[in-house]
Amino acid sequence: MTGSRFTSSGLRALRPAAFGADPAGERLARIRRSPHFKDGVFVNPGGTARTRPSGSAMDFAKVYFDKEARPRRSPTGTVPVHSTTLADLARPPATGLRLTWMGHSSVLAEIDGQRVLFDPVWGERCSPFPFAGPRRLHPAPLPLAALGPVDVVVISHDHYDHLDLPTIKALAGTDTLFAVPLGVGAHLEHWGVAESRLRELDWHEDTKVGPLTLTATPARHFCGRGLRNTQHTLWASWVVAGEEHRIYHSGDTGYFDGFRDIGAAHGPFDATMIQVGAYSEFWPDIHMTPEEGVRAHLDLQGGAPHGALLPIHWGTFNLAPHPWAEPGEWMLAAGEAVGQPVAVPVPGAPFEPGGDLPTRPWWRGVSQTLTRSWPAPELGLRAARGLDLVGDD
Q1: Do 19 and 233 contact (CB within 8 A), yes or no?
Q2: CB 194, CB 216: distance < 8 Å
Q3: pLDDT tens digits for 311-349?
Q4: At what angle do helices 290-300 and 326-338 cross, to 10 degrees?
Q5: What confidence score (pLDDT) does residue 380 get?
Q6: Which residue in 70, 104, 115, 387 has a CA-CA distance of 20 to 30 Å to 86?
Q7: What DSSP character marks residue 58?
Q8: Sign of the Cα pseudo-torsion (18, 165, 327, 331, in order)
Q9: How far apart are CA 317 and CA 390, in angstroms?
Q10: pLDDT tens, position by position, 119-153
Q11: What DSSP designation does 106 have?
Q12: 274 φ, ψ to 5°?
């Protein structure tokens, strides 16, 4: 008995803090009451989504370790970063809405006088360990402490490239609120965030932060940080609506029909932040290609081009077999095919969706040239087609 207790205690001691904590008590009871929790796990809209790579391990290895393809998955030089300064952010946005993409899925949204920080990841690796796992391909545009006060931090789900322990610990020392999907609050409390600062929501629930209404909306993905994936924390996309502006952050998701429902209930949006990187034919259910990302944006806007589309979840970490620059190239081509404005700012460069959008393909100077046909979504008389686009410096 003593040996058994020692072994159990020892295993707990070896558990990395980054694994977080499992929901328990009233939090777990609330999870079990959720209409989206069935047979002991959270389930995706439309049923089961494949969360593990399809096909054989041999097929995946051939693609992942291909000698010609591997160099394309990383930049060939130093990734340009705009060193965001206080001067960039001190002046209120002229239009009332300004977005600053910090890299990957991290975005600071200044909307109707409030500051909302989505999926902040300032850590060096998206991993539970400081010595292993995907490492940043460019630095954060500014130190987290230099960002200034944030009214609310919004988390889409608990994967390491969206929920970062060092970043959350730093933010725990501030008075910001945290809006998170159901169950994710267990991790934050474990890392020092007071329960009183948590707004933990199921899909279709909302909360008020000042004049803003934040609504957790469905996404098609999965969760998990530890060795066991218990599917006891929810994943979500988010709608943030102010008195004048509305924005949408997709989190991680595969394409699904629910975008139309979200748009009908909450849109149209002045800007959407859409996941378009880390896709693969081996996991088509849980990440979108740029063509699917444009299609999702159009669904959210009622079927026609509207607002600005900011592609996220690319450029910062190497998480899939596709070339590093491909999401940017493909997104510009797909947006152009349907007349949808796409913003591609250098990481750290603020822009206003209601003003001039950054459209220069900044990545071309530090990536291998890509030559292929880019599938585009269908819109009205524009049939789905490939656009020949060659990257140049």
Answers
A1: no
A2: no
A3: 999 999 999 989 999 999 999 999 999 999 999 999 999
A4: 40
A5: 47
A6: 104
A7: H
A8: positive
A9: 23
A10: 999 999 999 998 999 999 999 999 999 999 999 99
A11: E
A12: -120, 130
